[in-house]
Amino acid sequence: MSSSLPDFITWFLNPAHYDHPVDRVELVQTHISYVLLAGDFVYKIKKPVNFGFLDFTTLEKRHHFCRQELLLNRRLCPDIYLDVFSVCRQQTGFSFGCDGAGEPVEYGVRMKMMPQERMMGRVIASGELNESHINDIVATLVPFYEKAAGGGEIAGFGTPLAVSVNVLENFDQTRGFIGKGALQQRQFDAISSYARIFLQNESLFLERSAKRVKDCHGDLYSANICLADKVYIFDCIEFNERFRYCDVASDVAFLAMDLDFHGLPELSDFFIDRFVAASGDTGLLAVLPFYKCYRAYVRGKIGLFTAHAAEVDEATRKKALAQAEKYFWLAEKYAS
User: Fold this and answer.
1) How far is residue 213's CA from residue 133's CA, in Å, rounded to a whole number?
2) Rounded Cα–Cα distance for residues 134 and 222 (Å)
3) pTM of this prediction exceeds 0.85
């Protein structure tokens, strides 16, 4: 495995190469990051990739987006996101930080390790998630959105034209997968038709863009929430403002959809009821099915991309297709 990894990642897989106690190092890879879990800390390093919607191809860009990641995630997790570090080549290997010697070969973000058993996905899987957790999440989110930047350029991302760019590109990107498992022509037609018709509600979008389009989280679902001594909502989208500047309803709809996906519709409804009551945003209900549909379709699309990637094994492919099928079924349900 390590032969295909960058030499500095291989170096830091050795617990002895840290200046704090580490028993073992676990490497987690996403399509855009290497994540090193080492003792009490997490070291996240961006891959030099370009997917169109994100571009990490130069060291300068990766450094910039590390600083953005730190700044933006400190809004909700100031005590988890610690600093941006440099990786420097030394005579014997690598170090975190250059100490005046050598040039950085990479940058990353250092975080405190959160208790893995309290990750929301695990809490859901164990059947422990309850209304008290939902109340804590709402109490965290409402002041966050109240303080979040809005108006001006950000408000422009709530116009029907701007929203349609994000929504309609999903149909272009999935058209080639119709009938290849998970997505059927009937579903594609029903969902895309529903989205196009809803986007014609120009006054509804314009009314919300003035007050309810904010610099949001952008990726608000259970994979990015930890329910420990308090609520930690982490890993917001730092690499593309188009996905983060959105209607608060779009952010909130993602978590509501995620609860539906996990077979918790009562907690999903409770979450929306509590959020609307606490925020006073009754208008959110008019756009909620539309944004739930959008979020479910995006997750289905990601499942298709994963299932058809050349490097994935058969077990991963089957799991990704099964999840995608469930997401498209959910999107069709919202569209109806």
Assistant:
1) 26
2) 11
3) yes
Residue 29 has a pLDDT of: 84
Give 180's DSSP letter: S
Q: Bridge-partner residues for 213, per DSSP?
A: 247
- Centroid of chain to Cα 118: 18
Give CATH for domain 118-335. 3.90.1200.10
Question: Whole-angstrom Cα distance, residue 48 to residue 33?
Answer: 9
Residues 123 and 129 sit within 8 Å (Cβ to Cβ): yes
> Would you state the structure tokens that stand for residue 158, as one six-digit string?
């709530």
CA dihedral of 138, 150, 218, 330, whole degrees rounded to 10: 70
In the chain, domain spans: 2-113, 118-335
> Residue 53 corresponds to which tokens in the numbers above?
């919607």
Answer yes or no: CATH 3.30.200 is held by domain 2-113: yes
Read off the pLDDT of residues 30-81 as tens digits, 9 standing for 90 and up. 878 999 999 999 999 999 988 888 899 999 999 999 999 999 999 999 999 9
User: What's the pLDDT at 279?
Assistant: 98
* CB burial of residue 152 (10 Å; 0-12, 13-18, 19+): exposed
250 burial (CB, 10 Å; 0-12 / 13-18 / 19+) is buried
Extract the tokens encoding 191: 């969902």
